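From the shared-data thread, chain only:
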Amino acid sequence: MSAHCCGHHREELDGEPLRQAAYRRILWLVLAINAAMFGVEIGAGLAAGSASLQADAVDFLGDAANYAISLFVVGMALRYRAAAALVKGATMALFGMWVLGITAWHVSNGTLPHAVTMGGIGSTALVANAASFWLLWRHRTRDANMRSAWICTRNDVLGNLAVLLAAAGVFGTGTGWPDVIVAAAMAALALQGSVTVMRQARSEFRSNTAMKPGSLPIVGLRHGGRPERRG
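Structure, as tokens:
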């Protein structure tokens, strides 16, 4: 996509400051949504004894931190935005591994979560993440930093749907297995998203390095015999 090969020039285009300002406003809004939902879900997850709700809560916290990083690097050079995306990819990987640990603990303790609480809070989280997903949609292809923010929200929407399925499964079976299965699936989704974000960030690093002024080819001679570079 074009943002990969010329992202370091886009800051100079007409209208780019306006697009950055709009993106900043959206990031502030989704950051507030995620921070608020972390507080709601972590309390409900602990009260309900639900691994999937706790996993979703920590995901909200990680996303809030990632949106804060995105806000910090908006408008910076491509290499800084790519570096931020690498940090966010690593954060997503840590989240996935942490959720796997929570899931193992619930399996070993045979926890039976409260299905009604899972369903109610999961529905609220789905609405919050669907709103964030819609807000970020138009910016998802611009660079790794913006794509990582969208991927976080995409994973959240899928995770919320999975929590609702887990709630139905717990209610129908009277066991905690649907809850831990969904929590494990959410961990896998986070790890997959981490790989996607970090792969694109590395690609942008390579692109930025290849297009540094010092690497431009010599195409002719100026008057006086000095080499002339294209750029």
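Residues 1-14, 214-225, 227-231 have pLDDT under 50 and may be disordered.
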